[in-house]
Amino acid sequence: MRKLIYFLVLVAIQFTSLAQKFTLEAVKSYAFPTELVRSSKGDKLAWAMDEKGVRNVYVAEAPNFEARKITNYKEDDGQELTSISISEDGKWVLFVRGGDHGANFDDDKAVNPAGNIDPQTVRVMQVAFTGGPIRIISEGDFPVISPDNKLVAYIKEGQPWVSKLDTNENEDFLDVPVRLFKTRGNVHSLTWAPGGKKIAFVADRKDHSFVGYFELGKANLNFVNPSFANDFSPRWSPDGSQLAFIRTPAEGGSADSLTQRKRIPWSIRKVGLVAGEKSTLVWEAPNTYRGSLPTTHGGTNLHWPKQDRLVFTSYHDGWPHLYSVAASGGTPLLLSPGEFMVEHVSVSSDGNTVYFDANTGSDVTDKDRRHICQVSVDKADMKVITPGVGNEWSAISVQGGYAYIGAGAQKAPQLMVSSDSNPRSVTESLIPAEFPTKLLVEPKQVVFKSLDGLNIHGQLFDNSNGSQKKPAIIFVHGGPPRQMLLGWHYSDYYSNAYALNQYLANLGFVVLSVNYRLGIGYGYDFHNPKSAGQWGASEYLDIKAAGEWLAQQSFVDPKKIALYGGSYGGYLTALALARDSKLFATGVDIHGVHDWAHQRELPMDALAGPHKAPDAEWATSLSYRSSPISSLDTWKSPVMFIHADDDRNVPFSQSIDLINRLQKKKVPMETLVIVDDTHHWMKFSNALRVFQATADYLKAQLMK
Q1: In this structure, what are the phi and psi dihedrals at residue 697, rounded to the nearest 5 degrees?
Q2: Crossing angle between the packed helical segments 568-579 and 540-551, to the nearest 10 degrees
C-alpha cells in the first residue's frame, strides 16, 4: 500500500511539474511555416518561417530536403516575409520584407510595431539559394522573376518596375531599377509570358479594369479586348501565344437594393495577341446566385496548365469545386465531386496534376479538417492522399512526390515532404523543446442546432473527465469566411487562437470554438445566408445557441459562460454582451466592429438623390440595429477591449466609439492598447501580451 501511495505521489509531482511548464509562451513557441514555393523543376523549395516573431527564409532541395536558413534576421520586429519565389534556374530566391499583406487597406505601407525611429519600408529583396549577402533591389512589392532568369518585375507606387536579377552579368542595360511603363490607375497581377519577352498586367481604373501586356523593347502598351467590364487574372497559354482572363461587369447601372444579395456574373475568356482581336468565351458561370464569382481562397483559381486545358474553381453547384475545360470552350469537367470545398490550388510542374486541400475524407470529422487531394488536369480521378486525423494544406509537387504543410491536434505545423507515400517532416527540429506537445488536448467535434434549426459545427476543448462544472468560453472567429478546424490552423492568426484555446483549456476552462453561418466549409447557402451581417446579424443566432448549448451541459457552470473573439469575432462578442448579458457573464472584444455605418460606409448617392436605393431607409435602420451600439441599454456584463492603433482592417475608432458610449453607462471594463501594431499582431511579443491579457481577464472574471 505504501508503495502505491508513493507511486501516486510521484505521478502527482511529475504532473504538477509538467503543468507548470504549460505557459502561453510555450504553447505559442512553435515555428510557423508559410509561403511555400518550388522551383519550376520541382527539386528546390523555399518558404518563410516565423520563430517567435523572428522571420527568416529557409530552403531545401532534393533528394534529402534538409532545411537550411539563408537569411539571418534576429529580431522580433514585426516585419513579415511574403512573395517568396525561386528563379527557374534555382540560383536566386526573392522575397518582400515588410507591410501587412492580410490587411484590407494600406497593405503595402510600412509597419513599425518595434517603434524604430526610422521605419523600414516595404522592399523587394534577393538572396542566393546557397545563401550569402542580401541585395535590396528596391522599395516595392509583388516581385515576379522572368522565365529566362534575367529580370525581376515588381510594383512600386502602383506602377511596374523592373531590375536586372544578376548584377554580375555584363549587360548594357538595367544597371539600376527602372520603371517598366506608366499607365492610368494602379497596375497589379504582373505575369511573365514563356520566354520572358512579354509581361501581362491588370490596369485597375476603379470602376473598370483592363488586361494588357507589354513587350520588352517596344514603345507601346497592348490592351486585350478592352470592354465596359472588369477584366483580371491574366494567364498565358503554355506557348505564350494567347491570354486567358476573368471578366465581370463593371460598376454602374440603375439604383438597386442595398440589403438583397447580388449575383456577380463572371466568365473565362481568351484572346490572341493580334491588335484589335476580340476575345472568345471559354466558359460562363450559370445565371444563379451560386454561379456568382467565388470568394473562397484564390477566387477562381484560374490556371492554364496545358495548351488545350484550363482549370478553375466555381461555386455553382453549391460547393467551391475544381473544374477543367477545353481551351476551345465547352462543358467543364468536374474534378472534385462531393460535398466539400477546395482551397490552396496548385498545378504540378509538368502540368498534368492539380493539388489542393479539402475538408473531405473517410471520417465524418473530416468536414472540420483539411486533407491534401490530387487529381489529373483532364480526368476526374481525384483521391485524398493524406488521410487521417491531421490537417494538411498548401501542397506543391516536388521531385518524386509532393511537399505540404501538415499539423494535427498536438502536432504543430511543419513542412512535410512525401516521396513514395512516406511523409517526413523537414522542420521538426525547429520545434522548441518548451513546446508542450503531450499536454495539448484533442478538440472534439460537436454539432448542435442553432435557434432557427440550422446545424452548427464546433470544436470543444476540455482537459477534464466531465465530472465537475467548469466555467466555459466561446471562441468566435473573425472573417467571417473562415472555418476553424480540429487541430492547428493554416492561418497564423488562427493558429494563435488555437494556441490560446489550448492554454485556456489547460487553465481549467471548457472552450467551444463555433463555426457560425457566414463561414466556409459547409456549402454556399451556409456561406451566404439571408439577413446576415449588417443586414440582420442572423449569424448571432448561432452564437447565442452555442451559449445555451453550453449552459445545458453537465460539465459547465451555466452562470460562468464568456466569449472572446477578434475582428468579426469581436463584433459578435460585443453583440452577445449587448443583447444577452444574462447568458454571457463577460467577454473580451479584440478589434471588433461596433457600428456598421462607420465600417462599411454606404455611398451617399444610394441614400439620397436621383440614384437613391429603393430600400435606403430600411438599409440604414437595419445596419444600425445589427450593430452592438444599438443594444447598449441591455449591456450589463463586464468587458475587456483590445485594439492596435495601426489596424488596417477595423479602424481603431470603432473601439474608441463603443468605449466612450459604455463609459457613460458605467459598464465595467478594462482596456489594452497596442501602439503601432496592426490587426495581425505582427510582433510576437505583442501577440503574447494580447493573449495573456485575454486569458488573465477571463480567469479573473470567472475563477474568482
Answers
A1: -65, -45
A2: 60
- According to DSSP, the β-strands at 186-192 and 198-204 are antiparallel
108, 72 contact by CB (below 8 A): no
CA distance 205 to 133: 39
Asked if 325 contacts 332 with a C-beta cutoff of 8 angstroms, the reply is: yes
pLDDT in tens, 241-266: 999 999 999 988 887 888 888 899 99
In total, the chain counts a number of residues equal to 704
Is residue 681 within 8 A of residue 566, CB to CB? The reply is no
What's the pTM? Answer: 0.94
Coarse DSSP helix, strand, coil percentages of the chain, rounded to the nearest 5 percent: 20, 35, 45
Contacts 24+ apart (CB under 8 A), 571-574: 571/628, 572/476, 572/516, 572/539, 572/540, 572/543, 573/476, 574/628, 574/639, 574/658
Q: Are 403 and 45 in contact (CB under 8 A)?
A: yes
- Between helix 684-702 and helix 492-507 the angle, nearest 10°, is 30
For residue 539, is pLDDT > 80?
Answer: yes
Enumerate the β-bridge partners of residue 248.
Answer: 230
Pull the grid cell for residue 403: 511537399
Q: Do 60 and 38 form a contact (C-beta atoms < 8 A)?
A: no
**CA 28/CA 440 separation, integer angstroms:** 12
pLDDT digits (tens, 9 = 90+) for 136-156: 999 999 999 999 999 999 999
How far apart are alpha carbons 590 and 568 in whole angstroms?
9
Do 215 and 223 contact (CB within 8 A), yes or no? no
Distance between CA atoms of 166 and 210, rounded to whole angstroms? 32
Cα 109 to Cα 112: distance, rounded to the nearest angstrom: 10
Q: Exposed, middle or buried: residue 299 (CB in 10 Å: 0-12, 13-18, 19+)?
A: middle
Give the DSSP H/E element, type plus range, for residue 344.
strand 342-347
Residues whose CB falls within 8 Å of the CB of residue 678, separated by 6 or more in sequence, listed in order: 100, 103, 111, 113, 644, 646, 647, 648, 649
